């Protein structure tokens, strides 16, 4: 299938909790943004490393579009540099002897200084262009690593918890940048995340992994539908998604306990509301009211 990523792989892992048999079977449509969700040690990072070619499955098959990247039976194992991959690692993996601009330029297949400088602007890194990674904060390193992954215009973008070290404002900004880059670069994105707001704001599909196996796969609503709760009490949360319909808006709000609330709102309610806003939801005469904090 030239419009799918086919994953049918198994690998034995040894974790802090003991032996784990990673067994991932999924068919992903090209062009989707897939959030890989699950507890620590479930096998999320190992899945990304196997897609990239940095870790070999024990056995199985990986096909991206019409290209077979791994087939244990046919003894096919395409090298990482021959796969069209952009990878942002948890530890950033920046080159310490290169400046921020040089790190970004290094990832380009075709050198384009203007594109690299545009990335610096998009990720608010202009003033750090000539600084080495050792002189950057954790959040700044994270932005450089994300810019370097995106500048490759990859067929497959792999993001391993890309926004975990950022404050709420920058996280919301870069969520928008990821969504925009995904849409404009004709890429398929796998993003590891523990953040429910991130899931609902970004994901087309969620691949939920538990104990090394796919527990569920579908839209965020399909995967997390059992977390929905009533809005009869005052609850604070973050707007993860705003959907527009003919006569109303549907807000998906994630609470601090990762509970999901669906609230309808009308045009006059939406004047000051946008995705990423912290809001309070409360009832008045049995109608939910959403107010920005």
Radius of gyration: 20 Å
Structural class: alpha+beta
CATH topology (level 3) name of the largest domain:
Rossmann fold
Helix content: 10-25%
> What is the number of helices?
7
Largest sheet: 6 strands, mixed
* Overall pLDDT score: 87
**In total, how many domains does the architecture comprise?**
2
Order of helices and strands: EEEHEEEEHHHEHEHEEHEEEEE
CATH homologous superfamily descriptor of the largest domain: P-loop containing nucleotide triphosphate hydrolases
Categorize the overall geometry: globular
Draw up the topology in text:
Layout: E1 4-15, E2 18-29, E3 33-37, H1 44-52, E4 59-64, E5 67-71, E6 76-77, E7 85-88, H2 100-106, H3 113-122, H4 138-150, E8 156-160, H5 168-184, E9 188-192, H6 196-202, E10 205-210, E11 213-218, H7 220-224, E12 235-244, E13 249-255, E14 260-265, E15 278-284, E16 287-292
Parallel strand pairs: 3-9, 3-10, 7-8, 8-9
Antiparallel strand pairs: 1-2, 1-4, 4-5, 5-6, 10-11, 12-13, 12-15, 13-14, 15-16
Helix pairs in contact: 2-4
């Amino acid at each position: 299938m030239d419009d799918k990523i086919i994953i049918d792989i198994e690998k034995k892992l040894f974790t802090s909790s003991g032996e784990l048999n990673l067994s991932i079977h999924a068919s992903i449509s090209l062009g989707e943004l897939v959030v890989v969700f699950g507890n620590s040690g479930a096998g999320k990072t190992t899945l990304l490393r196997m897609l990239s070619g940095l870790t070999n499955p024990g056995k199985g098959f990986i096909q991206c579009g019409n290209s077979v990247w791994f087939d244990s039976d046919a003894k096919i194992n395409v090298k990482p540099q021959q796969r069209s991959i952009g990878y942002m690692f948890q530890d950033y993996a920046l080159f310490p002897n290169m400046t921020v601009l040089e790190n970004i330029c290094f990832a380009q297949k075709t050198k384009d200084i203007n594109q690299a400088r545009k990335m610096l602007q998009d990720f608010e890194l202009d003033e750090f262009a000539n600084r080495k990674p050792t002189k950057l904060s954790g959040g700044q390193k994270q932005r450089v690593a994300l810019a370097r992954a995106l500048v490759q215009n990859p067929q497959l973008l792999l993001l391993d918890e890309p926004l975990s070290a950022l404050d709420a404002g920058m996280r919301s900004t870069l969520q928008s940048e990821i969504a925009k880059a995904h849409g404009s670069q004709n890429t398929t994105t796998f993003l590891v995340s523990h953040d429910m707001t991130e899931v609902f704001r970004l994901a087309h599909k969620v691949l939920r992994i538990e104990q090394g196996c796919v527990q569920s796969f579908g839209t965020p609503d399909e995967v997390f539908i059992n977390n929905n709760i009533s809005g009869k009490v005052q609850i604070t949360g973050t707007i993860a998604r705003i959907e527009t319909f003919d006569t109303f808006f549907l807000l998906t709000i994630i609470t601090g306990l990762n509970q999901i609330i669906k609230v309808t709102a009308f045009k006059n309610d939406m004047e000051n509301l946008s995705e990423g806003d912290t809001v309070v939801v409360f009832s008045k005469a049995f109608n939910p009211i959403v107010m920005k904090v």
